[in-house]
């Protein structure tokens, strides 16, 4: 294991309060994408291991030790978990940068603090989940509702922000009294396992949080398990469709946060320099491995060349390096597969689509590095403008008629996020109202907050995370009628 990885890191699965290698013999390596070297290996869970984990979660739920715990006590345990994570923030950030590749500035400045914020935010909700009373047209009856937990929830997390997105799901699931089985992405399991150590230290009861590791087969077994009441998944639209189909058949609750192809609309009066800065961040954060990455830039034709040239110059100036290197602006992508996919889209954009590729030096180093590629003169029908790439490939599209902007921005299967750049706040808000996306930012890079609802439209997903929306997503409403006669 690399020297900068915590020597005592657990790599086993965690089921019913115990660390276990499971019943199988298979293992999966996890790599440092900055070097291509194996960090360690984790077990490949079997169907029997998934069954054991779900049954442990079900016992913990049915015992009512967690769901029936006083809300203030449950909140205190979540606050304790947040404190433990914050106390070890540096080691978590370094582990995330090693296992996922994101620069330390992102892991220490965004990923870990955001996870701490979510734990504290939902700890606050644990004591504030209420039902309603309503007057009925039935005499001598008192009517009220209760919000109750769902039961065992499967949390299936992606590899782009492993710790942060795990906590987006874990914090509200626990705050509302559910128990969980977590399946981290096989590429990036290490911070999930490390957080599980803190779950135990915080005193959260055995069986409330369980972790199984492995590939897609493990996720499928978890989704199909009859005792799983809800599936919360973040990942590709293709896999999301499969999960939705299975969940629909089994009538499970489901939340899906899937792919995106976010449009960035730059009007004629926009501050181009500010738009370039914000779009570089929005397009290249985590090397473009962001579902909401700004990837389609619609620019007034009169300013297209200026914007494209400045965007390309800014992208070319960014320093590639290992996530732990002090001067890194862009880390590697997560895997050789992801690197090869991004480079194939660069080839398609240049050789098949025929777009103009701005000057781009080859990437260097042993890791999975991809230098940003900026294309200009892109048209709506080109593959680079239509398909989710999940890498640092940016497309600049000119427009002549502002009236065509909304239709072009909405001409996509996706609808996760969008951004508008304009000095005219009226124009910006009118555009924001008409773009079909779950989140629209105006004159800013992509920010998220625990209190702000997050999720997509169309093929970008079902349901919402964060804010009160996540409380709704992890609870169900029960009606209680009382005869007063």
Automatic annotation (TrEMBL):
- The active site is formed by 257
InterPro entries assigned to the protein according to its UniProt record, in alphabetical order: Ald_DH/histidinol_DH, Ald_DH_C, Ald_DH_CS_CYS, Ald_DH_CS_GLU, Ald_DH_N, Aldehyde_DH_dom
Q: Which family does it belong to?
A: Belongs to the aldehyde dehydrogenase family.
Is Secreted one of the keywords?
Answer: no
Single GO MF annotation: betaine-aldehyde dehydrogenase (NAD+) activity
Naturally occurring in which organism (per UniProt): Nocardiopsis metallicus
- Taken from the record, one Pfam family name reads Aldedh
**What's the protein here called?**
Aldehyde dehydrogenase (NAD+)/betaine-aldehyde dehydrogenase
What keywords would UniProt list here? Oxidoreductase
Which residue intervals define the domain Aldehyde dehydrogenase in the entry?
19-480
- Domain of life here? Bacteria
Enzyme Commission number(s): 1.2.1.3, 1.2.1.8
SUPFAM superfamilies reported for this sequence: ALDH-like (SSF53720)
Record has Oxidoreductase as a keyword? yes
* Residue stretches in coiled coil: none
């Amino acid at each position: 294991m690399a020297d900068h990885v915590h020597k005592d890191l657990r790599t086993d699965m965690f089921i019913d309060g115990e660390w276990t290698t499971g019943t199988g013999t298979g293992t999966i390596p996890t790599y440092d994408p900055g070097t291509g070297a194996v960090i360690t290996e984790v077990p490949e869970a079997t169907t029997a291991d998934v069954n054991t984990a779900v049954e442990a979660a079900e016992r913990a739920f049915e015992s009512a030790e967690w769901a029936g715990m006083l809300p203030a006590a449950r909140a205190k345990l979540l606050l304790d978990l947040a404190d433990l994570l914050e106390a070890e923030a540096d080691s978590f950030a370094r582990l995330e940068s090693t296992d996922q590749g994101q620069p330390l500035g992102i892991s220490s400045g965004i990923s870990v603090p955001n996870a701490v914020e979510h734990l504290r935010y939902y700890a606050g909700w644990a004591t504030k989940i209420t039902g309603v009373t309503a007057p009925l047209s039935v005499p001598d009856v008192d009517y009220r509702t209760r919000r109750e937990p769902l039961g065992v929830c499967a949390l299936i997390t992606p590899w782009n922000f492993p710790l942060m997105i795990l906590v987006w799901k874990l914090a509200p699931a626990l705050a509302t009294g559910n128990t969980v089985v977590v399946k981290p992405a096989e590429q990036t399991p290490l911070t999930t396992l490390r957080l599980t150590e803190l779950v135990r230290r915080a005193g959260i009861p055995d069986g409330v949080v369980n972790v199984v590791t492995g590939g897609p087969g493990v996720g499928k077994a978890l989704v199909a398990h009859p005792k799983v009441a809800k599936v919360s998944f973040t990942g590709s639209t293709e896999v999301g469709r499969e999960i939705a189909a299975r969940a629909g058949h089994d009538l499970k609750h489901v939340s899906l946060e899937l792919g995106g192809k976010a449009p960035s609309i730059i009007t004629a009066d926009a501050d181009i320099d500010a738009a370039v800065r914000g779009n570089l961040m929005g397009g290249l954060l985590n090397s473009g491995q962001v579902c909401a990455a700004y990837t389609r830039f619609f620019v007034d034709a009169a300013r297209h060349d200026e914007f494209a040239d400045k965007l390309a110059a800014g992208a070319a100036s960014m320093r590639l390096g290992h996530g732990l290197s002090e001067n890194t602006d862009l880390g590697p992508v997560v895997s050789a597969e992801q690197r090869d996919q991004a480079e194939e889209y660069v080839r398609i954009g240049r050789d098949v689509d025929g777009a103009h590729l701005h000057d781009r030096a080859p990437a260097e180093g042993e890791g999975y590095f991809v230098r940003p590629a900026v294309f200009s003169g892109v048209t709506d029908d080109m593959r680079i403008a239509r398909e989710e790439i999940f890498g640092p490939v940016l497309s600049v599209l000119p427009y002549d008629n502002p009236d065509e902007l909304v239709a072009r921005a909405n001409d996509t299967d996706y609808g996760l996020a969008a951004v508008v750049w304009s000095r005219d706040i009226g124009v910006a808000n009118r555009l924001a109202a008409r773009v079909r996306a779950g989140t629209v930012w105006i004159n800013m890079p992509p920010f998220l907050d625990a209190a702000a609802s997050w999720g997509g439209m169309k093929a970008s997903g079902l349901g919402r995370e964060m804010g009160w929306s996540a409380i709704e997503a992890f609870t169900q409403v029960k009606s209680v009628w009382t005869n007063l006669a």
